[in-house]
Amino acid sequence: MVYNFVCVIFTFGGSDNVDILLEEIGEYKDYFEFCDKCNSSRPIGSHHCRRCKKCILKMDHHCVWITNCVGLCNQKYFIQFLVYMELMCIFNLLLIVGNIMDLLDKNDNLDSYIFKRDALYFIFINFLISVIFFLFVCIILIGQICSIIKGNSKIDELKKIKFKRITVKENLKIIFGNSFAQILLPVKNKMYKYNDELKFETIIDMINNKHLEITTP
């Protein structure tokens, strides 16, 4: 979980402010647009983050937890971090239930009653915080999974940008990689080598694989 947290902080969400020349774009010019804030070309479906001061491809949101944007390059780490947080909450809730059962089994005398009462107050507060945190993270996780399945981020939906429909399997490959191990483990996506930075060649590969096509209204 700590490794995922570090990765999601220090991996750019999908910064594509690379030096793209018009002659390099060539036949792919329909897949690029100009950002007047960055004063640079960017792939369609990118969004400018005012806090990061960069354009992020498939940007979902700017997360205050990680002080970074969640986008194409680090969404996998972000989702895995959320899953590990959920598992930690479940483990904590199981420990709480065990503590309650242990307290209820003890014989009651005055000292143990006072201790039991104070302990139950603490356990109840811990239980309440864990449940609230579990539900909060669960809502975020469901939103992330839904956006991957649909192939559109929350910002895409707000701006009414729709990528061409591809299979759920392909959408998962774009974010997690093309193997089951890459989905489960916090390892780099080997399908598109965008883990350190998003390069022009990677963008072209995504276009050629029809992973960056937007439907026209």
UniProtKB/TrEMBL annotation:
GO terms for cellular component: membrane. InterPro entries: Palmitoyltrfase_DHHC, PFA4/ZDH16/20/ERF2-like. Its main location: membrane. It is a multi-pass membrane protein. Its EC number is 2.3.1.225. The DHHC domain is required for palmitoyltransferase activity. It is an enzyme of class 2 (transferase). It holds the Pfam family DHHC. It catalyses: L-cysteinyl-[protein] + hexadecanoyl-CoA = S-hexadecanoyl-L-cysteinyl-[protein] + CoA. This is Palmitoyltransferase. Residues 32-160 form the Palmitoyltransferase DHHC domain. One of its GO terms (molecular function) is protein-cysteine S-palmitoyltransferase activity. The chain crosses the membrane at residues 81-101, 121-149. It comes from Theileria annulata. PANTHER family: PALMITOYLTRANSFERASE ZDHHC16. Keywords: Acyltransferase, Membrane, Transferase, Transmembrane, Transmembrane helix. It is found in: Membrane.
